[in-house]
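Q: What would this chain look like folded?
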Amino acid sequence: MKKLVFMVVLFISMLGLTGCGKENQISDSDAPAGLKEITGKIYQAQTNETGNIVIDKDKITEEVSYYSYEYDGIIISLLAVKDENGKFHIVINTCGSCGGSPYAYFVQVGNKIQCQNCGNTFLITELDNLEIGGCNPIGIEKLEEQDDKFIIDHEEIEQYKDKFENWQGPTK
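A: My prediction, written as structure tokens:
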């Protein structure tokens, strides 16, 4: 009988540790420990006549900028930054693996960006070498560089809408 009681207690404890049965709602007290302060500017994304996103190069600095693009009532965020070598980097501001979590957004920490959900960090200079679907920011394939701006295909960005439905990253 003691063995049965022990097994029941163990089973209930395991459910509690894994989060089974817990509703998919997150409060600030459930946020990962050590959330970093958001630095940098937040912009509403501008679009051109075809609906593609336009980012002016002169707004991209060595301090991360965030661009909020609204699609179907959901804010999708982009992150833009210039590295120490003067190269521009623009990514979708959520993690390929953690995406969908409210805290799956990136904040600059020195010359790196850090996921506020899992804590992984990435060198800004390496943001062109991202694993598709990996635990890293989501790269943008259809990114066209023009003289003074970048043009980003809105359809590519819109396919990630579901990763931003519960997202609580920088938007305003």
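Residues 50 and 107 are 30 Å apart (CA to CA).
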